Give the backbone structure.
Amino acid sequence: MSIPWGKGEPSAEDDPAALTRRLDKLRKINAVLMDRVERSMDQQGNAFSLFQTAIGLEAKVRSRTEELTSVLRRLEGSNEALVVAKDEAERANLSKTRFLAAASHDLLQPLNAARLSISVLSELQATDDARSLAGQIDQSLQTIEDLIKTLLDISKLDAGVVKPEVRAFPLDDVLSVLAASFAAQAAAKGLKLKVRPCGLLVRSDPMLLLRVLQNLVSNAVRYTDAGGVLVGVRKRGTQCFIDVVDTGSGISENERDTIFEEFYRGAAAAGGTHTGLGLGLAIVQRTVLALGHSLIVKSEIGKGSTFRLELRHVGAVARGAHAAAEEPEGPQTATGAIVLLIENDHDVREATARLLERWSCRTLMAHGLKDIAPLLAELKRPPDVVLADYHLDEGETGLMALEELRRLSGREIPAVVLTADHSTTVAAAVLAAGCELMHKPIKPAELRALVTHLMARQGSARV
């Protein structure tokens, strides 16, 4: 019996070892294929992921762009609003400046007439009680005047209305006005007032510097009952020091900083009979800061105080170019002087004329520019001194009238400009015209001292 081939004996495919090898091979092939498939799927997945990320970034960019555009639009709107607000602020500031100037004039003008009238009334009284009562009224008017002027000054400084006009000028020009302004007040208290000339050119705003020194000297005289007040100048390198020294009540160490606060008067002032509002040093501090100067206070209770102002000097005045700050030799009273009064306010004009007549001055009165030529023709000689209100009618100023008087007479007639306007523009114009400046309300004693000083300086002829 024959057996078919392959059935009686196992084939290679049926060999378990061969099958095992074949299975292993298939498994390896399968593993390779699966790996390729997975890598392919991963690549497809990464591409999809990147596509999704790109879409997300595009959305974020679009959102941020829209936000930025919105912010820019709001910023443009804010800038436009800021421009509008700036314009409104500038208009408001200009309006405030005009209001302060008008308030100064309108509030102080009637007060000026009252002060002048009270001064004349006091001299006319025959009894001590009547003179004392007139003095009390005058002191009350003085308090009102000081309050109005200092509050206006502080408002202007805080509003930035006051702009220093720094330049080089002879310091003795300021010191001479200072000496004339306080000579009578110091003498009335029995104090010695010494203002020493220095011959230096300094850099500052002359009008603002004068206001600072006036406040310092005023305080020194007010709080000194015996001894005196000295204003002296020293130089060191490019700096100079103006010392206002008094022998008054002094300031305690713990009050050195607080004395510059508004309405602070100190223990010595509160415990005594000294009058004051406590605003003078507040104005001094603000003005000194505006000028870029520095101020140092040294004091000892019961022995007095020294206020030292530091500023730059730029050399010396040519010898003989300026008069000394101390009172020069010459007439020591205003008696007999021919005074031209240029004033548009009737009450002030009449009150000032009565005051000048009490000083035995011959007084001529002008309302404005049109009166100058007829008065000069009638007088047949220039007046000794001119007292001119700054603001006249129809836009005229006292400086215009003075310029016409000087032109017609051919002489640089000394003049005092009287005004309630504290603006630096007015001060600069007065200074440029070579005139003295006094702010209303006028203190009669200071006016008399200044008129006497001008006549002595010019060596004016008497009638």
In short: The radius of gyration is 44 Å. Residues 263 and 277 are 6 Å apart (CA to CA).
